[in-house]
Structures
1.
Amino acid sequence: MLYNNGFRIAATGLSWPSLQPGGLNTYFKSICEQLAEQNTLDALICSDEKPQVPDSIRIHSIGSKQQSIWKRRELMQKYAATLFDKQPIDVLYSHFAPYGVGPALEAKKRGIPVVTTFHGPWTEEMKIEGQGFKHLLKTTLAKSIEMKAYGLADKFVVLSETFRDILHEHYKVPLSKIHIIPGAANVERFHPAEDRGTVRERLNLPQNATIVLTVRRLVNRMGLLQLLEAWRRVTERHPDHLLLIGGKGPLMEELASKVAEYNLHNHVRLLGYVSDEELPLYHQASNMFVVPTQALEGFGLITVEAMASGLPVMATPVGGNKEILSGFRPELLFRGTDSEAIAEGLLRVLDNREALPDARECRDHVLSKYTWGHVAEQVEDVFRQALDRKAAAKC
């Protein structure tokens, strides 16, 4: 069959991380780049501008973030129809339900299999971050979009057992359609520093401090308020330790207020948005990474990126982080999600640093299980199964 010599893939995503930071966009970029090494790939995103990409990827910037989501959805569908009629496509690979619905409808008309990566319950994430009648209406419409998109998919990829269960139980997707393929880290980009002191000097960080890093979208479910409350207890015993919080979002003002209220000016730095260029440097400058997520953590790309950089990671037992660390060093999981559990866990390891895994152990675990090469091979196998099913149906 033709696809044994490489698939012709149309991939739909939200955006590109250089244009709109976030785990979904980082995943989309990374898997597209990896798949494009052996396949033909067109990536459709919604953006006012076109990001710089390798020559192997044909990127299509469609619509504008200034338009309504309904208009963007319409433009995606029209563009996909034109693309599918202009060139042969073996599989549609969808990553964001609102932009995936239209292309999936066009794919179905042409007998093109649809494989969807489920990055999480979009509607549930929205519910956590808002309230009121208008927000309820917005989430109800969002749920209808999700149900439509997932009803059109032939196969699903999820990044963790947690999201497999959510997809099955909340969206009624049969388990036979769901394939668990964990995410990965770019191990060329994320690696331990040759000289941590030089990196700290470049970033204007103290040379002798123990530095704990987290980089998150600044919203409630990421657990940053709980982390700050826990860090107040940590600094009582370790006044020379420094917490770095990177990211942007609606919680920034409240975080800054809490830093002042807890008198943590000398113990916490709110970095704001950390660029793609600086992110690996902050990993290299740090001694440990912390992930205090309260809910809906699908996999934890940041966890394996930190480990690839040689950092031990402590995380709440939520979603994919529980699965990553249980198979590595389960003692790095906090016993719960509240500030007390986070403080207890941080103090336990910071009081006994020699018990932490070293940089080689952390990186080797990622190299053995969480590279984009591993992910692409498994995703291609799902494509193959979807196409084989299509061929069998024709017989």
2.
Amino acid sequence: MAESGFEKVAETSEVAPGEMKSIQLDGEELLLANVDGNYYVISDTCSHRGGPLSSGELNGDQVECPLHGAVFSVVTGDVVSPPASSGVPAREVRISGNEILVGPANR
């Protein structure tokens, strides 16, 4: 059963280490990434020009936007490399059995 405020978005078997996928939660496009067995969720929309981060490249714990090459931490959502000047929202992730649960947006 999902914890209060947390919703199931995927099974752990759906995203292998070093992979990521686009998910939807509460009408928002999110990026789910597996970094060495740890799961992270950030907005899937680049803060620079709105590119889909899930279509970019995941290198370690950083994702590169496919449009203009901005790089973000999938752990914190912070900008690692321009042209983006602001980070993207990150969500809390919990694992329950083999379910990946994501917390509500920080508003």
